[in-house]
Specification:
The chain is α/β, with parallel strands linked by helices. It is globular, with a radius of gyration of 22 Å. Helix 1 packs antiparallel against helix 11 and helix 7 (185-198) runs parallel beside helix 8. Helix 2 links the parallel strand 2 and strand 3 (77-83). The protein is built from 15 helices and eight strands. An eight-stranded parallel β-barrel has the order 1-2-3-4-5-6-7-8, surrounded by seven helices. The chain binds 3-methyl-2-oxobutanoic acid and zinc ion. 3-methyl-2-oxobutanoic acid is lined by residues 19, 107, 147, 149, 177, 179, 210, 212.
């Protein structure tokens, strides 16, 4: 990426392991986080926000392990979250240090409601703290992201000078969070356009967006933000996250993919260009979704866009007849493009270790020899009792093994 404000593709920043893990009941252990991080790397995300290192020793360990094992050369950037305090930033710096491309993401609240009731600081104080902490983070890493928390409800006239100072202090990404999912698409687009027009040094940073789904508008808001200059999208697999969740990665990526002729011009390309808009390997979407659902215990609703059980199912006779005559009558994308129906191998009691390992790989699991042996024995026991062992059975076996580590 030569010019931060005009990257050639839209940067996909995955926060499943940080904001996603903040979903009630979705806590993940270090091994589970590592397994998901490996799959996110296969999916092709550009940045993995692996956790909030100051929050707990377990999270610090998870971020550090992911930085060591997934944040390799040519791998994704590994990011740790930090409030705008020295202790948080130091914890994040320690955790991301082993990564080839480490990033610290620091944030401070900026809406009047947060300043008064949560942070108990004035705007003037925040104008001092934010650049100081960005500069502190830059003393550890070259890649620093800054977020004005609750930007969606903040006064833009306060945001502009604050962002200008954060960039002057070394922020390389400016992330605009709609923390409580309050904005409508038009408002979010205008907020991004206002920042582009009023922050004098904005061209030195990438504009990112982060949004929650309280009104179900996060994905629509992001697409409007892209039209107005946002070039990094912060999202989670299956849209998990605080309260109603975050913008769903699979929905954003497939919207940009299916409607690329519409979005291409916003990236300065001809509408008919076939250059992908993101680095995501869309065929990894389904298995990533399954893995995250299994390990977090967060079920995917059947009618969920892209990855729900019914997303490619046709129930009514008229629809079935239409699809049989021509798929495009009722399908705007091919199930195989998200990795569904890729492989029809059915595993049973006659299946060998190789087929077992191959199917697990396709589902996104890479087990070491010892774990594979244990899982294979359990698979054989089950296969003796069942005619066909489904992907769901396999995932249950593997998740059990990972959880027992
Ligand atoms: O929703 C939010 O504001 C956040 C920030 C930490 C970026 O998650
Ligand atoms: Zn958030």
């Amino acid at each position: 990426m030569n010019n931060p404000s005009h990257p050639e593709r839209i940067i996909i920043f995955d926060t499943t392991l940080r904001d996603g893990e903040q979903s009630p009941g979705a806590t993940l252990n270090v091994d589970e986080k590592l397994a998901i991080a490996r799959q996110l790397a296969r999916l092709g995300v550009d940045v993995i926000e692996a956790g909030f290192p100051f929050a707990s020793p377990g999270d610090a360990e998870a971020v550090q392990t992911i930085a060591e094992q997934v944040g390799i050369e040519d791998g994704p950037t590994i990011c740790g979250l930090a409030r705008a305090t020295r202790q948080d930033i130091e914890a994040a710096a320690r955790a991301v240090r082993p990564a080839a491309k480490p990033r610290i993401h620091t944030f401070i609240a900026t809406s009047d409601i947060h300043l008064k009731h949560k942070l108990r600081k004035t705007r003037e104080e925040v104008l001092e703290i934010a650049p100081e902490m960005v500069a502190y983070a830059r003393s550890f890493v070259d890649d620093v992201e800054f977020s004005p928390e609750d930007a969606g409800r903040s006064d833009p006239e306060f945001l502009y000078p604050l962002l200008e100072r954060a960039i002057a202090a070394g922020a390389t990404t400016i992330n605009i969070p709609d923390t409580v999912g309050y904005l409508t698409p038009k408002e979010f687009g205008e907020l991004i356009r206002g920042i582009k027009e009023n922050v004098s040094n904005i061209d030195q940073a990438t504009i990112s967006v982060h949004g929650h789904n309280d009104l179900g508008l996060a994905v629509a808001n992001f697409l409007e933000a892209v039209k107005n200059g946002a070039r990094q999208l912060e999202c989670t697999i299956n849209g998990i996250g605080e309260r109603a969740g975050n913008a769903a990665l699979e929905e954003l990526v497939m919207a940009l993919h299916v409607r690329r002729s519409f979005y291409n011009p916003y990236l300065g390309r001809a509408p008919e260009s076939d250059e992908p808009l993101t680095n995501i390997d869309t065929r990894q979407i389904y298995k990533t979704s399954r893995m995250v659902s299994n390990l977090t215990g967060m079920l995917v609703q059947p009618n969920k866009a892209i990855v729900g059980a019914n997303a490619f199912a046709h129930e009514s006779g008229i629809h079935q007849d239409g699809v049989l005559k021509h798929r495009l009558t009722y399908e705007i994308m091919d199930a195989q493009s998200i990795g569904l129906n890729d492989n029809q191998i059915v595993l049973g009691k006659h299946s060998g270790r190789n087929a077992f390992r191959t199917r697990l790989r396709e589902l996104g699991y890479e087990l070491g020899d010892q774990d594979l042996n244990k899982a294979f024995l359990r698979f054989k026991e089950l296969a003796d009792k069942k005619k066909e062992v489904s992907d769901w059975d396999l995932e249950a076996i593997v998740n059990d093994e990972i959880q027992q580590v």
